[in-house]
Amino acid sequence: MSAATILEAIPMPWDEGLLHEALAAIAEAYGYSRYAIFTIPSPDDVRAELKLILGNWEPEFQKAYEKLGLLRYTPVIRAVKAGPTPFVWDIESLHPSDAPDEPNPAARLLEAHGIRGGVFVPVHGMASFTGALALSGTRTELSPNETTELQFASFGAFGILAACRLEENRRSNPLTPRERDCLKLAMLGKTSSEIGIILSLSEYTVSQYLAAATKKMNASNRTHAVAIAAQMGYLS
C-alpha cells in the first residue's frame, strides 16, 4: 500500500492520534521503524536546528540525538533546505568514522537503536514554511517511485497536522491584537513606517510591537516571525 493511500484512509475528523497511526503504517510499509516530522530553520535562522514536532522516537533516543548535535548536523540541514528532493542516507556515508577502530559517536548511537539508514522528505511551502518527514530504520535505499510517493505523502502529512493544530493554535494565540495587525501588514511587505501610517501609530511603536511578536514566536527576525505565526494560524 502506498503512503498516499494510507493517508487517504484516515477518517474525518482528523486528529493527531490518527496521524500517528498513519505515519507508523507508512514507516512499516516502506521498511522503516521510526518516523518524525520536523520543522526546518529558515535561511536567516542562525541557530539552524531541526525541531521535532511529532514522531515515535523514544525520549532516551531523542535526548541522545540532541546531545550529539544531530538536530543541527550540517549535511542534513543543507540537504533539507536545498529543495524538495528527498534526501536518502545510510549510516556509512552520513556518519563516517575518522579511524577504523574509533566508531563515529553518531553512528554508534544509531546502530545501537537499530538504525542503518533513512530518508528526509522536505516540504517547502507558502509563507517560508519548511519542514521534513523523516523515516529511519534498517533500510538504506529507496526506488525513484518510492521517493516520489513519499514526497506526496509528506505534503499530505503536513497538511493534516496543520489542520489538526489550527483551531487549537487559534485558541492559544499568544499575540495581542496590535501585534497580530503589525505582523499581518509585515506579511504584505509593509515597512514599519508604512504600518505606522496605516494603524495610526508611530514607527517606534510598530517596531516595539514587531519585536515583541518576534520574541513570542522565538523567531530570529520579523520575517521569520511572520512565517511562524502564519504557519500556526495566528494571523487568520
TrEMBL record:
Q: What one GO molecular function would you report for this record?
A: DNA binding
Pfam (any one)? GerE
Which SMART domains does this one have?
HTH_LUXR (SM00421)
- Decide whether keyword DNA-binding is in the record: yes
One of its GO biological process terms is: regulation of DNA-templated transcription
Which keywords does UniProt give here? DNA-binding, Transcription, Transcription regulation
Q: Which InterPro entries does UniProt cross-reference here?
A: Sig_transdc_resp-reg_C-effctor, TF_LuxR_autoind-bd_dom, TF_LuxR_autoind-bd_dom_sf, Tscrpt_reg_LuxR_C, WH-like_DNA-bd_sf
Q: Does the keyword Phosphoprotein apply?
A: no
Span of domain HTH luxR-type: 168-233
| Name of the protein in its database record | Transcriptional activator protein BjaR1
Supply the source organism for this entry: Aureimonas endophytica
Lineage, broadest ranks:
Bacteria, Pseudomonadati, Pseudomonadota, Alphaproteobacteria, Hyphomicrobiales
